[in-house]
């Protein structure tokens, strides 16, 4: 008689290996998240040495936030994000397209990749301190402009709305365009070269190739980049916090939502801070949903193949 072989199941080891992650997520993320939502319905703050609450107030914290300057700070956050993101995505797309185009035969690609990514390794606080020192009224930028005779008096970059917002946007651009470029390069390199060769045989120009072939096929990565950028923009804190010393000057035009949230945490107003956190969560969820639907809503397989085929047909018709 043949002995039956005892089958060994290794499925349980997978659950054992991922168990530490779920334990840490439950303790350090899920419980604080639920607690934050719970506190948003309570009046809970410190007045001097006296602690008020927690007293259940329902939706009062949410209503109070709508009557505060929250919407103004939301507008500031949006403006600062747009100033940094638009040049970031444009430059990243151009660099990624150039570095992955085999026809250009660019030498030293690895060196350029490292140089482009280096600013991403610098801490945001160090970046903010560097720009604060460079663009102050007694900083090297004003000294250089004065010595060249281009200006007669030092420019107060941090004293104007345009100057402060531009510096915040410039720092966000410099810190993140390298990371975006590397991701887009990986996405473009994942496209089959046969598609590019076919479009060249059909007479597509470089511009048509970029807009009709490359962009539709990297839509999932573009969606990911846009979603992570939106989340990062809503969480913008360290750069404007350090650059404006936490005041959002001038006239709080560079005060972001997270800086507003931090002010509630410093005053130990946990109820208002919790309500603002819930608002941020809802807004980020809605924005990410719309971005995903706009960038991937018409795909039949999630990889842009349907859009790419349609665009390729349009390009061929235009050539004829």
UniProtKB/TrEMBL annotation:
UniProt xrefs under Pfam families: BPD_transp_1
Entry's localization field: Cell membrane
Keywords: Cell membrane, Membrane, Transmembrane, Transmembrane helix, Transport
GO biological process, one term: transmembrane transport
SUPFAM superfamilies found in the cross-reference section: MetI-like
Its membrane topology: Multi-pass membrane protein
Chain ranges passing through the membrane: 12-34, 78-99, 111-135, 167-189, 210-231, 270-292
Cited PROSITE patterns: ABC_TM1
Domain ABC transmembrane type-1: 74-291
Highest taxon above the source species: Bacteria
InterPro entries registered for this protein in UniProt: ABC_transporter_permease, MetI-like, MetI-like_sf
Cellular component aspect of the GO annotation: plasma membrane
Family classification: Belongs to the binding-protein-dependent transport system permease family.
Name of this chain's protein: Sugar ABC transporter permease
Source species of the chain: Mediterraneibacter catenae
Lineage start: Bacteria, Bacillati, Bacillota, Clostridia, Lachnospirales
């Amino acid at each position: 008689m043949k002995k039956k072989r005892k089958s060994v199941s290794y499925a349980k080891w997978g659950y054992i290996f991922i168990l530490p992650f779920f334990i840490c997520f439950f303790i350090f993320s899920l419980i604080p998240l639920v607690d934050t939502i719970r506190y948003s319905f309570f009046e809970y703050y410190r007045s001097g040495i006296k602690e008020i609450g927690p007293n259940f107030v329902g939706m009062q914290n949410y209503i109070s936030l709508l009557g505060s300057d929250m919407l103004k700070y939301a507008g500031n956050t949006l403006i600062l994000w747009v100033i940094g993101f638009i040049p970031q995505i444009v430059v990243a797309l151009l660099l990624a397209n150039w570095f992955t185009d085999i026809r250009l035969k660019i030498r030293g690609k690895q060196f350029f990749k490292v140089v482009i990514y280096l600013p991403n390794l610098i801490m945001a606080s160090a970046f903010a301190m560097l720009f604060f020192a460079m663009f102050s009224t007694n900083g090297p930028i004003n000294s250089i402009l004065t010595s060249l005779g281009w200006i007669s008096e030092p420019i107060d970059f941090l004293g104007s709305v345009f100057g402060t917002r531009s510096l915040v946007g410039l720092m966000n651009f410099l810190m993140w365009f390298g990371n975006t470029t590397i991701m887009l390069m990986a996405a473009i390199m994942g496209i089959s070269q046969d598609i590019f060769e076919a479009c060249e045989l059909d007479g597509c120009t470089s511009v048509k190739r970029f807009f009709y072939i490359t962009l539709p096929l990297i839509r999932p990565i573009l969606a990911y980049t846009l979603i992570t950028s939106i989340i990062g923009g809503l969480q913008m804190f360290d750069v404007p916090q350090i650059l404006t010393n936490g005041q959002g000057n001038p006239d709080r035009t560079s005060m972001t939502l997270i800086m507003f949230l931090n002010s509630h945490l410093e005053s130990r107003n946990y109820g208002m801070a919790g309500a603002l956190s819930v608002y941020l969560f809802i807004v980020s969820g809605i924005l990410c949903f719309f971005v995903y639907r706009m960038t991937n809503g018409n795909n039949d397989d999630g990889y842009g193949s349907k859009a790419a085929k349609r665009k390729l047909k349009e390009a061929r018709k235009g050539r004829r």
